[in-house]
Amino acid sequence: MPWRLLKYGLKSSHNEPRFFPEAKPLKSHYDVVIIGGGGHGMACAYYLAKEHGITNVAVLEQGYIGGGNTGRNTTIVRSNYLTPEGVKFYDTSLNLFEDLADDFDLNIFYSTRGHFTLAHTDSAMRTMRWRAEVNKHHGIESEVVDRDFIAKEVPYMDLDCAGTHPVMGALYHAPGAVARHDAVAWGYARGAYNRGVEIHQKTRVTSIRTQGDKVTGVETDRGFISCNKVVSMVAGSTPRITSMLGLETPIEIFPLQACVSEPVKPFMDTIVVSGSLHVYVSQSSRGEMVMGASVDPSVLHSTRSSFNFVEGLTDQMIDLFPFMSRMKVMRQWAGMSDITPDFAPIMGKTPIDGFYLDAGWGTWGFKATPVSGKTMAWTLANDRNHELIEPFRLSRFTDFELVGEKGAASVGH
Amino acid sequence: MKVFDCPVIGPRPISEFDYIGEVRRPPMDADEPTWAAYVFNRQGAPGLLREWWYHRPTGRWYVMERDTLKDEVVRFIDLEEVRYDIPA
Amino acid sequence: MTSRLDPQPLEWLDRSETLSFEFEGLAFTGFAGDSISSALLASNQTLLGRSFKYHRPRGAVTLANHDVNALFQSSEEPNIRGDVTPLAAGMSLTACNVNGSLEKDKDQIIGKLSRFLPVGFYYKSFHKPKKLFPMWERVIREKAGLGTIDTRWDARRKAKTYGFCDLLVVGAGASGMQAALTAAEQGLDVVLADENPHIGGSLDYQLANDDSAAPIRTALKQKVQSHANIRVLPGHLACGWYTDHYVPLLGPEGIVKMRARAVISATGVMEQPAVFRNNDLPGVMMASGAQRLVARYAVKPGQRAVVLTANSEGYRAALDMLAAGVEVAAVVDMGKADSRGRWADELKSKNVSVLEGHAVYEAKGKDKLKQVVVAPFDGSACNLKLAREIDADLLLMSVGWAPAAQLLYQAGSRLAYDSTLEQILPQELPSGIFACGRLNGAFTLDQRLADGERAGTEAAAFLKDQPLPAEQTDCRDTEAHSHPWPIVDHPKGKNFVDYDEDLQLKDLVNAAKEGFDNIELMKRFSTVGMGPSQGKHANMNGIRVLAAVTGRTIDQTGSTTARPMFHPVPVQALAGRRFRAERLTAMHQWHLDNGAQMMEAGAWLRPEFYGRQEERAQAILREVQAVRTGLGLIDVSTLGKIEVMGPDAGKLLDGAYTMRMSNIKQDMTRYALMVDESGVIVDDGIAARVAEDRFYVSATTSHADATFRTLSRHIVEWGLDVRLVNRTGTLAAMNLAGPHARKLLAPLTDIDLSEENFPYLGFKEGNLCGVPVRLIRVGFVGELGYEIHLPIESAQLVWNTLMNKGAEYGIRPFGVEAQRVLRLEKGHIIVGQDTDGLTNPFEANMPWAVPLKSKPWFTGKPSLALLKERCQRTLRGFMLPKGYSGELPKECHLLIDSGDIAGRITSIAYSPSLGRYIGLAMVDQPLAGSDRMYQVRVDSGALVPLEPCAIPFYDAEGERQTIDLTEVA
Questions:
Q1: Predicted local distance difference test score (pLDDT) of residue C968
Q2: Is the CATH number of domain A27-73+182-250+342-408 3.50.50.60?
Q3: Among A17, C128, C313, C751, which has the minimal tally of Cβ within 10 Å of its Cβ?
Q4: What is the ipTM of this complex?
Q5: CB contact under 8 A, C866 and B1
Q6: Nearest C-alpha in B relative to C656
Q7: Where's the Rhodanese domain (chain A) (predicted)?
Q8: What burial letters (b/e) apply to C172-193, b meaning 16+ CB within 10 Å?
Q9: CB under 8 Å to C851, separation ≥6 — which residues?
Q10: Does A304 sit within 8 Å of B71, measured CB to CB?
Q11: Average pLDDT of each block of 10 consecutive residues along chain C (969 residues)?
């Protein structure tokens, strides 16, 4: 038994310090206001305080900590992206993830599982090789594997896929991992709070005040706050914030759905994604199969669930894992994905002085949590884009310099 | 599953439609930034949005004005309204 | 010894059929109509399962699928819910999630360690030192999960059906039946669904012995079952509410996807446990659970009962126990008995002792309830000085209810706490959603019937678009049926709020104190409500605890989101039958008969090559050589084929494709390249001028539907007079290619094939083998070639004729692979292989296809004008050095220049015509603009040199297209 647990048992009362502050009044001024108390917002606050000594910071969250896409994603962490800029960015993130538990003194259940992206067509096989080659070039463990390899690692999968769309091979990314999504947000929040950052839940931003092209503060449903710098880290709510400033972006919101099965004894240690079948699955430490698919086909600002989603998902899932037909789907939910035309985020400075964006996270926001926080904190502190996020600047669309991540489109969680 | 109460073919489930997105009109003699903004930027905020929907079984186009927050179709737009001329 | 009672008037049992089954290796019997739990309880097997975390003994609690204490495993299925799964003959069951056996579960030790496992303990431990976490994780994963999967289980699928109705009433209890009847009387088409195998709801178990309910029950059931406008669906679970009243109903035969125009939720309430020490001991049950056990299954729940109550229903339950022969040692009322109505009076008349203002402080017993400790209760705590023990093997809890409001929440309703009823009630319902019955605060039978009638009337008015009656009946009760704080602390804990997750009162209190004082945060940190019951018995008390700790009201505290499904739904039912659309060409069977290896191309199947898999390379080579030297025939029916007709046909194509189409001469064709608004290549094909106002356009296999869709949209937005016909499915197409092509065709057709009449890129209509065809002189594979388009019903005939007559020229069928080699020799791109999601025509080295100057407009033109000067990469040809014999590069291997990525190979193949490996590569600038050698990194990591070269590799002058017949004769 770990020493920590022994300590709890021997204590008569439960005297753990609070993770997060109790609700208190807003101050009239902060140096930085972070809109959005999800993983990204908390990580940004944490690194602002820890690495830049900026602690007069308020994180404003309209709901509760980590209640948006942070708490709705399927917790996969990987770095096997297609473009050099994507690979470098997510690899930095993955490396940060590995040390988070130590950093926080909080177990985020970071668990390296190995990540298979199945290819069912020769064109998918080509894309897998492309990704593998780019990954290897940047020192990322990633390789194209054949059916025999998959059969050994995931012996219970039907590689013939019930007769149609047989699996031809896969991209195997050994460092692919899962982590407890909530704990990541909580760890950052606690770390930020302990360093003096204020966290205000149930606080909604209603408008952003500017003078000329410069931010002067934010209006909230709890009153006005003056500030010099505002960063929007609200994923699915991004257009609501940017429209307050009349700032146009390519972001559109599409629901992304997921579901879990009833818990069963863990048998699946790897993460399996099929881009062609648009499904992915892993098994949580609670024993639930965590499953998802691609984003819904039409724009919607809602986290409603649809029955089509779960029908389509289970249909494909049975082809890969016939025995799953005997399991039950317990719960489904949705998040709102902020999708960009080139499937890469939009980060950094904007045409409005003092307004920064961390958005366009599509279906990849969770895995970028640490690196986004770190690079956005740097960007806020230095008022220029961190080199890792320069390719993701908003102005790339005006310049027709899109990021090539779209080459590896389809499901890639 | 969403149902569209279509003026021509009656109530139809959303799964019969392809979604193309926001109805837009290209600025014909735009400068580069205006053109780039047209190509990439979208009305991302929730609210009323005019969108193209293609009904696959009948091969017919519809433009609906939809509240993207409530997921409710406010009205079907006369296709004449979304017409524009292209230089020949 | 059995606990089976004499037949009960409403029991579900068929006593003529005895079913034998096994549990934990022991033989049991039950009756048809039993659930697994009821059959075991009838045989006095009161220990039914073990709890998830601490492996504590558990018995039946709700008999209603509101808890998972009785969870079983068979060789066919995990996580079988014993309370509601019908018993079947021959079942062989074990307990779920035990280490060893149910009786001797070795993991009970974890319960002893519970003080070492505070709320959220796993977040605070196991991560230091880092290297040990994988070990701890293995331990945790070993203990996680419930049932066991056998990965050898085969796939099962249950067919789905569609259903439609005006009004779906969910819940066939008193109010639901009345609502259905009222609406049906108004002429509406009503479906009445209930998850239980029999209708009646709580009328049948809670009011089973209430004489005044009997005639109402009989009449209601008779009326709904015989009403022509009502379809009664017992045994159908409403899985969830989805947009526009789409409610999948899970029935014994599978899911009925019900589309209603309005929905009434008459789903009732779920009884909530009292929280006291050992409130999970077998023998401690919901009062309604015991009533279900008696009324439905005729099983005596115990010998001597204590009834803990805070409402009139507890007295009803006590009366029911007496009727079932259970001794009632005491009724412990947390409040005052005088407000409990006639059932309390009736009970008092039977001389049962009633302890008012008391609560249960603790239950005692090891694997089964032995004593109940009761003490005076002031609304928040017990006075232990006056505590006493009562011997009992049954303790019924009747302290309150939570609404089964999941469907209402999913539909977007607002609910709020009503401090009169101490219950959460519907406040604002969205359009077309109605609620009635106990869920809506109507508790007496009269109230429930009146409320059902009200809801039925309102739904009918809504559906008929009629005004509502001005007088709105309020059918809600004015007495509380729930206790606001049915919770008693205990220094030793084990007072469970959530049975699924073994969460004790202190766990929730501590979670709130650590800052998880938002209901959603508390759920996520403590896992309350996250187990298989999804909070049905836990959420209400969780909210009460959090409200108390934070000093907020229930409404301020809020509740967690109720997401589908209501109960977990089998994957086999959700998936339904397997349906994979597969498109086959007219020659499909011929391909199979002639040894084709088929590959998927979108929804189509196409021959990859002809021959055995082992001799793939030789087979492809043979096919290539046949085309180059003799004749080849390929099935290209999968190409998109679109007829474009009308005065504005040319204008449409001019706007949709990069090059001008309106000036194609009659009987000629032109390459058709389509880009999107950002200038990215999305499709290519050929456009043929059939007549002044008529074109025939082809598209790539995978993009055919999208191209048709795009063209049809342009017609609308550009206001053009054009009609489109998608002929992809009705026309077949084949490409006859090779130097002998003309010679073979000439005697078979009435079309003049002479070079003057029918030049390269020409188009003709006529007859071939007596069949009307369209011929196009194409050059995709680089030989004299004719693409033959014809009705699918004639295609096989023509194919056979060409194959037969072509034998003398060495004709061979060729597949996609040979075509890839042939077109590569010509340097023709394949959209999607040599291009990616961002490739523009300049990058694809096709500036000739972008007439920026001569055309005023086409889709994507302004983007291309802008991109022309910003070309970052270009598609280039390359060859492997002569005589190269090392490791072969593959498609998507990277070009490396000074250590950096400088592009990738998009196509590579051995060219039999050149005797060398050739390929295309997307090469970054500045390398693309230089004449330096390229270097590609192959699998081994070695760098292989590539010689840049011009394309096409083969027949650069296009002489093969006009090859003279006599020359090759």
A1: 42
A2: yes
A3: A17
A4: 0.98
A5: no
A6: B86
A7: 32-76
A8: bbbbbbbbbbbbbbbebbbbbb
A9: C658, C659, C660
A10: yes
A11: 92 98 98 98 97 95 97 97 98 95 92 83 86 87 92 97 98 98 98 98 96 96 98 98 98 97 98 98 98 98 98 98 98 94 94 96 97 96 96 98 97 96 97 98 97 97 90 87 97 96 95 94 95 96 96 92 94 94 95 96 94 96 96 98 98 98 97 97 97 97 96 97 97 97 96 95 97 95 96 98 97 98 96 93 96 96 95 95 94 96 97 94 94 95 96 90 57
Q: Which two tokens stand for residue C269?
A: 């309430």
CATH hierarchy code of domain A112-177+252-339:
3.30.9.10
Nearest to A93 by CA among A338, A343, A357, A361: A361
- Interchain proximity B83–C244, CB inside 8 Å: no
- pLDDT classification of A9: cutoffs 50, 70, 90: low
Please check whether residue A145 touches C, CB under 8 A. Answer: no
The structure tokens listed for C913 are: 């015509």
> How far is it, in rounded angstroms, from Cα C232 to Cα C248?
15
Range A229-233 average pLDDT: 98
3 state SS of A117? strand
User: Distance between CA atoms of A82 and A84, rounded to whole angstroms?
Assistant: 7
Give B-chain residues touching C243 at CB under 8 angstroms: 1-3, 71
Domains of chain C (ranges, CATH numbers): 161-270+403-463 (3.50.50.60), 273-395 (3.50.50.60), 495-561 (1.10.10.1100), 581-638+730-837 (3.30.1360.120), 640-727 (3.30.70.1400), 872-949 (2.40.30.110)
B60: which DSSP letter?
E
CA dihedral C821, A143, A119, A295 (to 10 degrees): -120
CB-CB contact of C102 with C69 (8 Å): no
pLDDT band, very low/low/confident/very high, at A202 (cuts 50, 70, 90): very high
Q: How far is CA C629 from the centre of its chain?
A: 53
Residues in chain C: 969
Chain B residue numbers touching A243 (CB-CB < 8 A):
44-45
B37 touches chain C (CB under 8 A): no
* A306/B44 CB distance under 8 A: no
The mean per-residue pLDDT over the stretch B83-87 comes to 94
Chains touching C (at least 3 CB pairs under 8 A) are: A, B
Hey, are the CB atoms on A264 and C79 less than 8 Å from each other?
A: yes
* Pairwise CB contact (< 8 Å): C678 & B30: no
To the nearest 10°, the Cα dihedral for C371, C377, C380, C385? -80
Nearest CA in chain B to C653: B88
Which fold would CATH assign to domain B3-27+45-82? Folate-binding fold (3.30.2270)
Average pLDDT over residues A55-72: 97
* Segments making up each domain of chain A, as ranges: 27-73+182-250+342-408, 112-177+252-339
Query: How many whole angstroms separate alpha carbon C279 and alpha carbon C444?
Result: 28
Helix, strand, coil percentages, rounded to 5, for chain C: 30, 30, 45
User: For residues C50 and C12, is the Cβ–Cβ distance under 8 A?
Assistant: no
Q: What pLDDT does residue C731 have?
A: 98
Identify the sign of the CA torsion C26, C32, C38, C44.
negative
pLDDT at A1: 52
CB C96 within 8 A of CB C72: yes
A298–B contact, CB cutoff 8 A: yes
Note the pTM of the prediction, 2 decimals.
0.96
Instruction: Tell me the DSSP string of A288-354.
Output: PEEEEEPPPSS--------HHHHHHHHHHHHHH-GGGGGSEEEEEEEEEEEE-TTS--EEEE-SSBT
The span from the CA of A160 to the CA of C45, in Å, is 45
Rounded Cα distance between A358 and A375, Å, is 10
